[in-house]
From TrEMBL:
Protein name: Activator of HSP90 ATPase
InterPro entries the UniProt entry points to: ASHA1/2-like_C (IPR013538), START-like_dom_sf (IPR023393)
Lineage, top ranks: Bacteria, Pseudomonadati, Bacteroidota, Flavobacteriia, Flavobacteriales
Residues passing through the membrane, by range: none
Domain Activator of Hsp90 ATPase homologue 1/2-like C-terminal: start-end pairs: 13-135
Protein's organism: Kaistella carnis
The family this protein is said to belong to: Belongs to the AHA1 family.
Length: 137
């Protein structure tokens, strides 16, 4: 199955965008789809071979899941390739547009349980929340 690609432009320098994307103290503030959700736990050992584990759940605790896996390759300020515990691959690409603008592109393998459109919408909602968080700080 062909991977899904989403992207967004953030009006902040690439270094700040990169740092906020891979720092657990920031991840827990943006890594969820809507205000009914939150990310109560975020762990990342940001190095090749390091693990990441984020807990996403409804605020009322009625449903949640862990988003976790291993970082396979890091090219500083350019991209990070990872795979989730279920084997699906994720690549996050950072492209400097200018001194104060950065494009973030996420390419991820879809899971089979949910439609591609639902997954695209969910991943984009999280990326958009990240974009808004970074631009406020």
């Amino acid at each position: 199955m062909e991977p899904i690609t989403i992207n967004i432009t953030i009006l902040k320098p690439i270094r700040q965008v990169w740092d906020y994307f891979y720092d657990a103290k920031h991840i827990v503030k943006w890594n969820f789809t809507t205000t009914n959700w939150h990310c109560p736990k975020g762990f990342i050992d940001f190095r090749e071979g390091g693990r990441f584990d984020y807990r996403l759940e409804y605020k009322d605790k009625s449903f949640g899941y862990n988003f976790s896996g291993v970082i396979d390759e890091i090219k500083e300020l350019e991209y990070v390739k990872s795979h989730m515990d279920d084997g699906r691959k994720i690549e996050v690409i950072f492209r400097k547009i200018d001194e104060n603008a950065t494009e973030v592109i996420q390419v991820f393998e879809a899971e089979e349980q949910y439609s591609r459109e639902m997954q695209r919408t969910g991943w984009y909602a999280i990326l958009d929340r990240f974009h808004k968080y970074v631009e406020k700080h």
